[in-house]
Amino acid sequence: MMRFKALVLFAGLLFTAAGTAHAQAGGAASSADLKAIGCGLAIIGAGLGIGLIGKGAVESMARQPEISGTIQTAMIISAALIEGVAFFALLIIILEVIFKQ
How far apart are CA 46 and CA 11, in angstroms? Predict the structure, then answer.
């Protein structure tokens, strides 16, 4: 699973960088498409990350129910940070694909 997450992250970065390089070279339409693919992969990676955080937190709470409040707080903070990255990727998709800047 760790290799899959690394592959999704690498592919997202690759498509985003390729879209930026293509836009600097003068191509506008397909660079937005490459950025959209990269940002979509970033959102998929964020979903996988939040799912794994939830899985780990529930397993930890099952093992040690006395510290479930601390685990839940850490889980919510981590999920919020990951969700911020996914929201940023969604904003890039909106700016680059819908408005085609």
Answer: 14
Environment class of 34 (CB within 10 Å of its CB; exposed 0-12, middle 13-18, buried 19+): buried
Q: What is the distance between the alpha carbons of residues 45 and 82, in angstroms, rounded to a whole number?
A: 9
CATH code, domain with 17: 1.20.20.10
Predicted local confidence at residue 74, as pLDDT: 92
Distance CA 92, CA 18 (A): 15
Which backbone phi and psi does 60 adopt, to 5 degrees? -65, -40
Q: What percent of the chain has pLDDT over 70?
A: 61
Domain range for 61 is 2-98
What one-character DSSP code corresponds to residue 100?
Answer: -
Number of domain units in the chain:
1
Q: What is the mean predicted confidence (pLDDT) over 52-72?
A: 92
* Overall average pLDDT of the 46-73 stretch: 90
